[in-house]
Amino acid sequence: MPGAGAALDVGTTEARLVEVVGAADGAACELLPHPAAEAHASARTTRHRRITGTVDAGAPVPLPSPMSSAAIEVRDLRMTYGAVEAVRGIDLDVATGEVFGFLGPNGAGKTTTIEILEGYRPRTAGEVSVLGVDPAHPTREWRDRLGFVLQSCELDPLLTVRETLSLFAGFYTRPRPVDEVIQLVGLHDKRDARIGRLSGGQRRRADVGVALVGDPELVFLDEPTTGFDPAARREAWSMIEGLKALGKTVFLTTHYMDEAQHLADRVAILRAGRIVALGRPDELGEGLRAETIVTFRSPAAAELASLRTTVDAAAENVGDLTTIRAADPQALLRRLLAWADEHRVTLEHLEVRRPDLEDVFLELVGDDAPGDGAAGGGSRA
């Protein structure tokens, strides 16, 4: 995996980046550098069980070894608003060149944490280093190395593609050549077209160009695909994978667990201001009870009692679906199918799968109520 200082191979990454098309109407996901964001008008438990063991309430989650040198280092980060403790001792490392997913329900403390990392909010206590700099004391050179995806922000519709990228390039000390960026994102034929006349997919490419024109080392992606249709989401995923191919470090927040599962090298799950799980998405799923999940449409109530006795396992009913967890799925399926044949029951929508990131998230977070925004954490979740 290339580091942030590695040479950029435009030819090998162009094909991946130009696939970024199809943003949903009315939803914008704009990649903005800090200086540009400043110039724009502001748009802006009970079960705290670590997947590999138990995390006592209040205890920090142990850190895995980062894949390479750390782009972000956080130790015992705390933030209080009066009597409300929004962030309660966070520890994490984000390695240079990785896509790091930062997940949690509304009110978990994500917004507060991200704004501290971005240098927009002072902290109450703890140590923070982002690209080797304390964000509480930002410099112009440091901001040159950061980029952003905002949930809702619009490029000037009257400017052309080239004018837009030239404008944003002016905010940086060492920008990438504008024509190179236009070529990289596949807008060469539209370089003189106004932003307001571009299609949704072409605007998305322009957003990517805005992100790349400053050549940032670290990009914060805040809910980058909210409001997108499935096709547009997949195309945005290709864009994020293209950033990784360029050696960028990506700090991703999303409410879509499949998005985090697909894109993130590692994820942290935040609950009530504390990290309750940290690791690779696949290893988190493997640690969740280490059981296979079997689901199917629920039979009649009278048959369900007989089923529970036959399979010798707890069967949970949610809506019209029955869920059974088993350490030995092969033995369970033998008993289950034998029971279905004996009772002449068709097991509709039968599915067998391992626990995924969404199962982990629901297991650890449950039905936490929102509260971060009320505590002053800002507009983002």
Describe this structure in words.
- The chain is α/β, with parallel strands linked by helices and 381 residues long.
- It has 2 domains: 10-285, P-loop containing nucleotide triphosphate hydrolases (Rossmann fold, 3-Layer(aba) Sandwich); 291-354, Alpha-Beta Plaits (2-Layer Sandwich).
- The chain is 32% helix and 22% strand.
- The chain has 13 helices and 14 strands.
- Strands 1-6-7-8-4-9-10 form a 7-stranded mixed β-sheet.
- α8 (230-245) links the parallel β7 and β8.
- The chain starts with 9 loop residues before the first helix and ends in a 16-residue tail after the last helix.
- Residues 1-68 and 369-381 have low confidence and may be disordered.
Summarize this, please?
The protein is an alpha/beta fold. Helices cover 32% and strands 22% of the residues. The chain has 2 domains: 10-285, Rossmann fold; 291-354, 2-Layer Sandwich (Alpha-Beta Plaits), CATH 3.30.70.
Radius of gyration: 23 Å
CATH architecture of the largest domain: 3-Layer(aba) Sandwich
What is the total tally of β strands? Answer: 14
Low-confidence parts, pLDDT < 50 over ≥5 residues?
1-68, 369-381
* Integer average pLDDT: 76
- What class do helices, strands and sheet pairing give? alpha/beta
Q: What is the number of helices?
A: 13
Q: What's the CATH first level of the largest domain?
A: Alpha Beta
Number of domains: 2
